[in-house]
Amino acid sequence: METKRTGSDFAYSGCYDPAAFSTAYAREFAKVPKFNQPSMPDLLFLLKKIGADPRITDLRWAAYMLATTFVESSHTMKVQKVTVDKKGRSKSHSVKVWRNFAPIAEAGHGKGRMYYLPVKITRLPSGDAQVCEFDGECWTVSAHSGHARALNKHQSRGVSATAKASETYEDDDGDEQLYYGRGYVQLTWWNGYAAASIALKRGLDLLFNPELVNAPNTAYDILATGMCTGSIYANGRSLAQYFHGTHTDYVSARNMVNAGASHANKVEVAKIAERFEDVLFGAKSKQPVASK
User: Fold this and answer.
1) What average pLDDT does this structure show over 107-122?
2) Which residues contact 162 (CB under 8 A, 6 or more apart)?
3) Parallel, antiparallel, or unpaired for β 138-141 and 148-150?
4) pTM of this prediction?
5) What are the angstrom distances between the C-alpha of 268 and each of 103, 210, 235, 281?
6) Would the CA dihedral through 172, 117, 166, 160 be positive or negative?
C-alpha cells in the first residue's frame, strides 16, 4: 500500500546520497522520454548544489528544481559511435543522443524574437552601464539596483528581429552582446541579465559578460535564487507559494519559469517532479550539509 506523505515528511535540508540517488534515478526514469544515463555527472552536480543550499528546506522544492532543469536543458547532440560488422571491420558514424542537466544556449539564439538582435553595452565611469538597442533606443542601468532609466521618452525594450541598425546604434562604441536564453532556466533579455546579476550580488557582471550565465555554478545560482525569492525570471512567484505544509501544486509551479506554458507542458513537468520526489525520498542522507 502506498504511504501518504504528510507536510512534515517533506521538511528536509541537507545532502542526498549520490549512490542511492543514481540507482533510484536510473530505475525510475529508464522509460521516461529524453532520459540519458551519461548525463548523470551533470545531474549529480545539481544534486550536490541543492543539498548544500540552506535555502532549500523542502524536498518538493528540490524535486521541482530538478524537474525544471530536466525539461529546460534537454536537447539532442551528435556523438560518434563505432560499430563492428560481421567481418570485424569497424565503422564510425554520428548518432543523436539526448543530453540533460547542463546549462544550455537557446536553440536559434532567440531567432525571430524581440531580444534576438544584438545590443551595445558601455561601462560608464560610475560603474553603471549604458545600453543601446538596435533601433537606437538607449538606457542607463544602475550598478547598485539594476534599474534601467530610459534616456528618451516613450521607449520600450525589444526590437523587431527584422529591423535594420539605426545610425545611433552604428555610431555607438559599446561592446556588442547577445541576450538569448542561457543557463538552466533560459535567462533572456538584457534587463533579465542585469536583474540576475544584481540578485546574485555581482553588480552588472552578467550584463557585461552574458556567457557567464552558462557556467554551472552561476546557472544554479540563477535557478535557485529565482525560485526561492520570486526574483529575476520568476515574476514574484516562488517555491513557497506552491509547496508548503500539505499543499503541493506541481502543475501551477510551472508559472515560475513559463506562465504561458500549455497545460500539457505543465503536467509533463509535474509528472517528472513527482518521479524526482520519490527518488529523493530514498536518497536522503544523514551526513551533514556539505560546503558549497
Assistant:
1) 97
2) none
3) antiparallel
4) 0.91
5) 20, 30, 22, 21
6) negative
